[in-house]
Amino acid sequence: MRKNPKVNEVNEFLEIASDFEDPLEVIRESLSNAYDANASNVEIEIRSREMGSDIIIDDDGDGMNQRDLESFFDLGNSRKTDSIGYKGHGTKIFYKSDRIVVNTASDDANLRAEMDEPWKKLNQRELPQYEVTETPVRGGNSGTRIRIRNFRSGQGFDPESLTYKKIEHYLKWKTIAGSTAYLFDDEDREMNITVKLGDEIDDSRPKLETTTRFEFPDERLEPDHSSEFPAERMCKHYNPTEIEIEYEGGTTTLQIVGMVGGKAARNELPTYGKHSAQFGVWLAKDHIKVERVNEAISHDNEFLHFFFVVNCQDIELSANRESIRNKSSPVYQRLTEEAEYYLSKVAQDPWFKEYLETRRDAEIKRRARNRRSSLKDRRERIESGKALEPTNRTEVLLALERADGKSGASTITVEDFDPNADVHAIVRQGGKLRNAAVHRSLTDHFEDDLTFEEVDLIICWEYGDPTTLREYERMGYLGDEVEFQLENNGLVYGDDGQSFIEILCLNQESDKVTQQAVISD
Amino acid sequence: MSESVIPSIDFEVTSTAGDARAGSLSIRDTVIETPNLFPVLNFYGGGTINSNYGGGIHRTVKEFMIGHERINGGDYSKFFDGVMTSVSSLTDYNITRERYDDYVSQPIKERDVFSPFSGILFIDSGGFKFLSSDELDGSNFQIEIDQEKVYEIQQKMGADIIVNLDRPISPDDTHNQRIEKAQQTGKNIAKFLELSSDFRGARYLTLHGYNYSMMDEFLTEITRYTSAETLRSAFDGIALGSLVPKKDDRNALIDAVIDCRAVLEDWGFEELPLHVLGISSRAIPLLVALGVDTFDSSTYLQTAINGGYCTSLMETVDVSEADPEQCDCTVCSSEYLKEWMLGDAPYQKDMLGAVAMHNLIIQKRSIFEIRDRVRCGETEPLIEYIESTVAQDKPTREHAHRVVNHSLGGYF
Q: Cross-referenced InterPro entries, in alphabetical order (chain A) (predicted)?
């Protein structure tokens, strides 16, 4: 007996509609549909409602006939083959709403379709139905208007998170509005896009108007030497290039276009958030950016200076168009190899090297300026009579030299200094060589887990936190007892209590300390 | 009756592609096309006339050079249109005084045994080897080496191109050591010019340095002994040396050659042929693109000695995995030599020698192809060559793209 596998229709609709997690995808799908319908203008209006959002999408495209309308509501039954939305999944995002009304006028028919409570019904495991009514055709006014009531927009359409800026960024980086097709095809059609947000969402401007063309910032090849950041606005365009590639099983075409530029140039693009999340090398289909392959740029070159779009019609996308499905295919392997090859040429472009050099030189100069201001602070500190405050071992020894010079008493001469050894310095005192550990704080010796093996003397600028020292006394150090006898300028270490290590604390009464150290030796 | 004065050397650039140039180098009555590769060869390797003067694998390669019956004859002369050898290699095989005297008793090309060889003979001074000991050290004799001795040997061996005795630098040299070496080289150059004023071949000036300033300083130092004007009028070519320690650092190599071209232009030497001493054959496509005219390399031999069989300029396989059926070179087309290569040879040197000859043919064919592409007079054919060879190898790709961008008009 032969049996047909069954499909649970309701679950499928629920699943697909849920797959679209980002409510902004409504905008992307609407723009793709309008573009596929040859629209010249599309307007999207979004208003915030208590339960979600009301969305109206209006385009002047070819409109839909009965069959198109079925595809609009059916799942996986797209009539399109070579267009952006060929899977028949996209419009199902609209099912996450209380009501869908489609008014569409084509040459064949003037249709109105209504679907009530689609989301509620799906969640009740009921397949929502829609009703279509037909009115006589009026010529010359084709187009489609889709009204979605209470779209379950989740957090994404919150007045707090949805702004014109965010939408513009989304449009240019994730939808047909950011298309680079026009750079390859002289006859590419341009579509005007208008987005209106209710004032309750964003009242910073009345509307957002743009087109389906991604415009690069103007090229500027020379640095601006009057600026502290001379490379910041540098920008070079890399002209549209088509590359035919062969792969196991076929051939395909890569269309590569892009730019390299500084931060200010990149900021002229609709950026939103960190540049590291946006720039680099994008793989695209239908000239809509999908995923980045920043590994195509060798590690020496920071990817965020680059913005390249590598379009290939032979990549396959997931239902929500957020990722590439055929990554293990030969075509994907070849296209990433070829992108990497192309970008190696860019990375070896002398202009790019000059750009990096300009950035580096400017950074060094800025650092030098900062150092100048810190130098000024240091000089002011000296002028104000404040003494040297050592911050490292070398400075501690410098302070030791000064203290010695002043005292005129027993002097300590540093004969050898190796800051990386356990015994940092060998000093001569009263004619004898002594092994010294050198620290800014006495506590550093313990925090660095150094032993007292071969150490005769600890030279430090200060004792450090007395409670830290007391804790070592209480808990022991490296398995043995330790007792600080700071009044005797030393510490006693070891269970037998016989190891006395001198401490020369420079920020105390150094004369007395030095003499004591010699006596005990 | 006065003899008509025919210039003994002529270097003519006939076409350029970006910075690359193709031309011809005529010395006396021998002409070779450039860019060109001079295989390194020991003409004298311990043996006597009966063994073509010996030399192990060198002996077998010499048999190819002269089309000896041991290798079943054949004409390999186009792969030996220029050959490099060195004064310092004379005692590589621990010879006796008697043998040494025999070796330098007659010019190479005048010996009957080498008579089929009619290529240009470039005899290096061996400066690198003489850095560690200023002597030619045989089994029962030593000859102290100085500029005079080197020139005498170069002449006796019948050189077409000679270089002065130089003191190559090393990357670890201090500035003072470099200056000292430049001054020693400068003194040698003055002596060399004095001794060789009636030399009828080409005289090449050695140049040392890793960047513009080093090379500029080198020239400044040697002009303490010989004026720049004299250098310009006396020398027929430039030999860029000291790059062997940098041979695996492609960026350093490219920097050095780019800077060398700039220095030569600033010093008025840009019209002279530029030879790069001792650089591996894989770097050739890039160095030609940067404007180098000739090279010498022993890679074909070294690769064979290490069991390597070249399948292209860029690729080598182990000789045990080689498939000579896939190659149409004269060696691989001969059943007799194919057996040698696969191990059925009278001696190990014959097996390695046959592989070395195959490797040389592969390398020479590559240089012929590169030359043909430069001759087109456009950069595109050379770019295509570099893209399909050097740029296919990921580690060298960035260098290929750098050179195309720098010297062949660039991609953008």
A: HATPase_C_sf
Q: Where are the alpha helices (DSSP H) in B227-347?
A: 228-234, 250-266, 284-290, 299-305, 335-341
Mean pLDDT of B175-201: 96
Contacts of B410 in chain A (CB under 8 A): 349-350
How does residue A521 score in pLDDT terms, banded at 50, 70 and 90? Answer: very low
Residue A288 phi, psi (nearest 5) = -105, 125
Average pLDDT on B372-384 reads 97
Could you tell me which residue, B88 or A372, shows the higher pLDDT? B88
- Residue boundaries of the structural domains of chain B: 9-305+355-407
Residue A154, judged by CB atoms within 10 A of its CB (0-12, 13-18, 19+), counts as: middle
Mean pLDDT, rounded, of chain B: 94
Determine contact, residues A72/A81, Cβ cutoff 8 Å: no
Of A344, A353, A354, A355, which to mutate for an interface test with B (greatest number of B Cβ within 10 Å)?
A: A344
CB B121 within 8 A of CB B161: yes
Cα angle vertex A456, ends A455, A458, to 5°? 80
- What is the model's pTM? 0.79
Query: Which fold is adopted by the domain A9-211?
Result: Heat Shock Protein 90 (3.30.565)
**Residues β-bridged to residue A505:** A460
For A348, name the nearest residue in chain B, comparing CA atoms only. B402
Neighbours of B115 (CB within 10 A): 11
Query: What's the CATH architecture for A235-354?
Result: 2-Layer Sandwich (3.30)
Distances (CA, A) of B257 to A345, A349, B269, B381: 20, 19, 14, 22
Could A348 and B402 be called an inter-chain contact, meaning their C-beta atoms sit closer than 8 Å? yes
CB A366 within 8 A of CB A228: yes
Domain range annotation of chain A: 9-211, 235-354, 393-520
The pLDDT of residue A82: 60
Q: Which architecture, in CATH terms, is B9-305+355-407?
A: Alpha-Beta Barrel (3.20)
- Whole-angstrom CA distances from A387 to A378, A379, A381, A394, A406 are 11, 11, 8, 16, 13
Give pLDDT tens digits for B202-216.
999 999 999 999 999
**Nearest-by-CA chain B residue for A301:** B398
Q: What is the per-residue burial (b if ≥16 Cβ within 10 Å, else e) of A456-494?
A: bbbbbbbbbeeeebeebeeeebeeeebebeeeebbbbbe
| Inter-chain contacts counted by CB atoms under 8 A, chains A and B | 32
